[in-house]
Amino acid sequence: MADDDDSVSLHQTPLTHVHKELGARMVPFAGYEMPVQFPRGIVAEHTHTRGSAGLFDISHMGHIVLRPGTSAPDAALERVVPGEIAKLGRGRMRYTLLMTEQGGIHDDLMVARPAGRDLFLVVNAATKEQDAAVLRRHLGDAVSVEPQTNAGFLALQGPRAAAVMARLCPDAAEMDFMDVAHLTVDGAPAIVSRSGYTGEDGFEIALAAGDTEAVFRALLAHEEVEPVGLGARDTLRLEAGLCLYGHDIDTTTTPVEAGLSWTIGRRRRETADFLGAGVVLDQLANGPPRKRVGLLPEGRAPVREGAPIQDTETGEPVGEVTSGGFGPTVNRPVAMGYVDRAHSAWGTGVNAEVRGRARPCTVARPRFVNNGEPAIVTSKQNKS
Amino acid sequence: MSEIRYTQDHEWVRVDNGTGTVGITQHAGEQLGDIVFAELPEAGQEVQQGDEVGTLESVKAASEVYAPASGTVQAVNDDLADDPGQLNSDPFGAGWLYTFTIADRAEIDALMSEEQYAEFCAEG
Question: Predicted ipTM?
Fold first, then answer.
């Protein structure tokens, strides 16, 4: 994976030894020793998650708590994200973007308000230190930025996730999508949200490091649940059209180009007071120069990250693939990438260059599944 | 009695009456994970030992196929287009890649024996 880290002293999660016991193949990822797959393999793990419930160790991800300083955390955070945070209700969570001055994206993150005024941020593993630095630099004394270090983090994903959670944490099964709460899971205090990164229903469960193994084993004991590694996590999110930071979005891509304009609050568009607002609002008004789109390669060969995208007539470069591979649920190769606006309408034919050969692709909606089933859209006009 | 030789790229060659058959090893299949696509050489193609003659795509990554020995490609396993998973499930049988007319038997004799290959894998 692109985030491989050759450093000899990899961090471990509270579950590293459990993964090894389960026969996982371990790889370095964002500085952590993580399971890329368990013995059943990526396709089986992927399919199991879409059909039943997959259990993921996501303890490598970062948690940052924002507590009040001279200001309320929600008002302060709005300086650096374009989302509507002030109106985020207690017990609710929202996806937003940590912005750069230039309108690029430092990170994508979840902002939760489990209770009270404190905000609980879930950030990417590879960017967590940098995110804390960015927050401190821009928010100063307004809030206390407190990265959490001694935590475990699990995701239970799939159509059977709610039924399993109901046995260990009855309140969780009552939650709506993007609800978050302090609950008890099999006796362990946890922050539980109904959310995930697979396109399926599911839960994410933040725990004290010392409770993580017991809860992981308790979930795994249910017959619907199988462990899932990072390999299937990637194929699941790719089919679901979800961005992977550092690949599909980064400091050079704007929210508008990335198709994430829906994260920009209506009030925020008027007040224009977030980092990078100038570039972002200009692109909202006048259209972005390029757009993130889904790509359906013809045939069976996957088209992967880095493949140049070309006009079919002229061969001129019009974009690049940012994520691509084989989608087990759609049973075909799928990809996403950026193309210039002229080639961004769904249904447009483009070529992706793979090993020196032009491979025909059709521009499509980036999300290729719905409720665990293939749902490919190439006909509707792409809104810009 | 045919014999099998192995390369450091985790491919095998089986020799029967002057014809070589090429495949990948069990170890290669395990390392690659679920294979979803195989791009193979064409019948009649002349290949030199070490030439890149194809690509195997797993869910995770692409991996090249190298000619284990020089010769002329005779047949390619077209069944892999419909069922590339045979490379994982039956790498020494139904998952064969291509056959070729052997140009230089000495190239094959210099490859690893089964025992040597087992040692090679154990060394990592």
Answer: 0.83
